[in-house]
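Protein Entry — a single chain follows
Fields — amino acid sequence, structure tokens
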Amino acid sequence: QILYLKPPWTLANLLKCYKKHWMAVFGYVVPRSLLSTIECLSKHLCADKPFDSSTVRILLQESKKLLHAFSTRSDYNGVLPHAYAEVTKLCETLREVRAALVEQDLSEDIMVLSENAACEKMEATTPNLQSTEEKELHPSFHAAHENRHQEIWSVLEGVWNTMNLYSIELFQKLDPSAVTIAAKASFEEAFLGLQKLLAAVKDIREGIGR
């Protein structure tokens, strides 16, 4: 009789009911600080716009917090444990997708490096037979060659900068007083970055071996 919105409910309706009756009802069942979780879910899930994988990860984590809080009161005839298991499964799927995307980006970077190295090797072994026309094209050819060097250097510099950033991040996690840094990546991003770097080093070693 006193409900803000009557059933049947949509997700948006439920979140509105949570916020409306939070202090009078739900705040006595679960910690009142979880109102921020309700507001986070409402802000993103009720908005008519897409969001990235980082936001999805946050929403899944907030959902798990809410479900876990209510589980201390009741299992709601087994519905709540099932819901918690499904959200956990989604979290694992998201981790796998993000790891696959990182691996794909790594493969593309390595492919570029391999192609550039192959081009340079071919150029080094090509007989130096230049006609008059070839001599006229030589300056542009030389410029392209220099551009390839710069591109390779840029990729290697990017690997080094990434390694340095994540190393600082790991030290920051282990000992906050040891390192100060203005902009910090998440621990998950640092871990994925190190995995990417390890895979790159492995492929480079295999390439040298071949």
